[in-house]
Description:
This is ADP-ribosylation/crystallin J1. By secondary structure, the chain is an alpha+beta fold.
Amino acid sequence: MTDRQQATTTLWRPTGPRELELVRELDWRAWPPRLPEQPIFYPVLNEDYAVRIARDWNVPRDGAGFVTRFEVESDFLRRCPVQQAGGRTILELWVPAEELEEFNAHIVGRIQVVHEFR
């Protein structure tokens, strides 16, 4: 019997130091639950957009911004709506906070930090 590798989709998430610490506490395998004022978890579909948010929004607000990259099972992502948040390449997935635990169960491998801004 052979294991068939699950097709995955690469996603990025711009984040500040507080959220990144929570991801570290979860062994780089899951995103923390949303706060009450955060009804949507929104990873983004392109690295450039994630860099702009981390650099231009997280740094002024939090003193540091990070871009993370992670893989999610492609079949699972079909149920998450893609939202255009501006230009053609400014695309986000909208995952309702109450579905984040299930989303986390479909992450393949670990969440990695690929950029850091201060």
